[in-house]
Amino acid sequence: IQHAALALASLHSEMRHVEDALQAVEESIRASQEASDGSCLCACLYMLSLILLQSGLPGKASAMMRQCLHRSEALGLPMLQSLCCMGLARTFSARPSLSDRRQRGLLWRESITKMASG
What is the structure's pLDDT at 102? Predict the structure, then answer.
């Protein structure tokens, strides 16, 4: 059920139905937590960051992408890790001030370096 709710969130997000997308991603998060599905929960964090970005909240979106990047790295999910790095790069290019906060902007660069060397 967690994957179905996540797919529904993605559909709503594509159609720019932000409230419905948030509701579906929240359901997916609950179902992922109940099922102890770490990879789906990580994908939910990524989807939530995209929805926040779509809602005009780049600061919250980049914080969520950072969390997703940490978790995807810990779980060994290179595809999701790459998506987070690209999302962070896109967010930082639109709002460079976000990458200057306490050197946290370096995380995505370090992650790319680890993926390339591994």
Answer: 47
Low-confidence ranges of the chain (pLDDT < 70): 96-118
* pLDDT at site 38: 92
Q: What is the pLDDT of residues 25-39, one digit of tens each?
A: 999 999 999 999 999
Write the DSSP string, the chain: -HHHHHHHHHHHHHTT-HHHHHHHHHHHHHHHHHTT-HHHHHHHHHHHHHHHHHTT-HHHHHHHHHHHHHHHHHHT-HHHHHHHHHHHHHHHHH-GGGGGGGGTTHHHHHHHHHHHH-
Please report where in the chains the tokens 């609950």 appear, as a residue.
30
